[in-house]
Amino acid sequence: LSLPLYVYESSSLNPKFIFADNLSFLQFVFHTYTTGFTLLNGNGTAESEEHPLQQKQIFHGLGAISYAACIGALPLVFMNRYTLKSSLTQLVVRKLLPAPLLGLMSAFTVAVVRSPEFENGIEVMDRNGKVVGVSQKAGEKAVKETALSRAVLFGTAFFLPAVLMYFVERAKVVKNPRALASVRMLMITSVLAGMLPVSLSMFPQCGEIKRAELEPEIQSSTEETELFYNRGI
């Protein structure tokens, strides 16, 4: 995970990547990686014959990747296009905006590529692991939880290293550009290593949902007060 995040950060903070083509390509690489991970680690509910789930997810994913890459590059491209070089603009566009934008786009790609889960539903089970039914509401809950955890993971993993690097550069502890790149990579890896278990533990892998929140046909098919589902990663 640290390599694609480093690629994204380099494209946003390094002036030599200010051109639209470079920004869009590098962010396309990052979002392709994370979207592929999402596609492989979603809920395992089988697709219906009418809805070829994997093919639909791939098309959704390609659209989400392209959109996220363009939106991620847009602030820097806009700043460069209109030569907005004031210190306030530089602070907002290069330091403050990338972290929430990355978190938002990471959540967006999760929601798009896993949209068939809340359109077609996912399996819900009782305490013994017996499948009770397929629920759209459980699918919606699973996707929302995963999108939020992904936003927290990448938003924080981008924000903290950027803040730490600001103080490192200001203190002039490291002056060599290559050494600075190595320090940035180390910080990203360290923050990711700490944030990964935090984001995964925000919501349990085996999610719970109350029977009263599910569709009427599922409520009538069981007496269990709480049912369970696979949230995915």
TrEMBL record:
GO terms for molecular function: monoatomic ion transmembrane transporter activity. The chain crosses the membrane at residues 58-79, 91-113, 147-168, 180-203. The keyword Aminoacyl-tRNA synthetase does not apply. InterPro entries: Mtc. It is a multi-pass membrane protein. It is found in: Mitochondrion membrane. One of its GO terms (biological process) is amino acid transport. Its main location: mitochondrion. The keyword DNA damage does not apply. Pfam families: SFXNs. Keywords: Amino-acid transport, Membrane, Mitochondrion, Transmembrane, Transmembrane helix, Transport. It comes from the Eukaryota. One of its GO terms (cellular component) is mitochondrial inner membrane. Belongs to the sideroflexin family. PANTHER family: SIDEROFLEXIN (PTHR11153), SIDEROFLEXIN-4 (PTHR11153:SF3). This is SFXN4 protein. It comes from Pluvianellus socialis. The lineage of its organism: Eukaryota, Metazoa, Chordata, Craniata, Vertebrata.
